[in-house]
Amino acid sequence: MRIVEEGIGVLSEYGAIPISFEVKTKLDVQVLNGGLGGVIFSEQTLTIPYVKDYDGLNGEGPARWAKRWDIRNWTVLSAFVDDRRVGGCAIAFDTKGVTMLEDRNDLAVLWDLRVHPDFRRTGIGERLFGAAAAWATNRGCRYLKVETQNNNVPACRFYAKQGCVLGALNRFAYEEFPDEVELIWYKELR
Ligand SMILES: CC(C)(COP(=O)(O)OP(=O)(O)OC[C@H]1O[C@@H](n2cnc3c(N)ncnc32)[C@H](O)[C@@H]1OP(=O)(O)O)[C@@H](O)C(=O)NCCC(=O)NCCS
Hints:
Elements: E1 2-5, H1 11-15, E2 21-31, E3 39-52, H2 62-68, E4 75-81, E5 84-92, E6 107-115, H3 124-138, E7 143-149, H4 153-161, E8 165-170, E9 182-188
Parallel strand pairs: 6-7
Antiparallel strand pairs: 1-4, 2-3, 4-5, 5-6, 7-9, 8-9
The structure holds coenzyme A.
């Protein structure tokens, strides 16, 4: 398996890798005493699993990013097994008006990370994350930041395994999905 920096020009090929996953469990987030008593996470099994596909959401999906943001400072790192594209990640950096970037130059955002379902759990995500962290470090970043949700337990476990820590949670982030909790993770780079 090799990782290649292809740049942001390959978004249509990149978007052909499925990002969808089956939601079988979720992290229930219990806020005690309005938050002053702490927060408890507990993994719960759903009675009816469902498929989540970020690309299927309104206005989302790699092919549409350029219409919403100035992506000239962003990049794509791709994973290949032989000649097959099996995964990739997109990194956002140094772009005005991108809320996730907080108007800071000492952090980059792991905007998107996807491994083809046939190749998940074989270490490709970890290699991509490491390459993204190196890319951000080379640009002087102190943090690599990433957003996920409480119904993406594989991603939460994955980020925790990469040494990310939970920086923020927002129970009211998604108007369209009021049951989902936004989780913002930070990987300290140096
Ligand atoms: C999240 C994702 C990128 C992980 O990539 P991956 O290549 O499957 O992950 P890796 O094989 O590198 O896993 C590394 C470690 O992360 C953790 N991990 C990964 N997938 C996991 C899962 N389904 N359940 C629990 N832990 C998991 C494990 O600790 C794993 O190490 P191990 O296999 O030795 O136990 C992949 O599942 C994916 O593409 N999901 C759909 C898209 C998505 O959710 N992207 C992230 C959006 S925020």
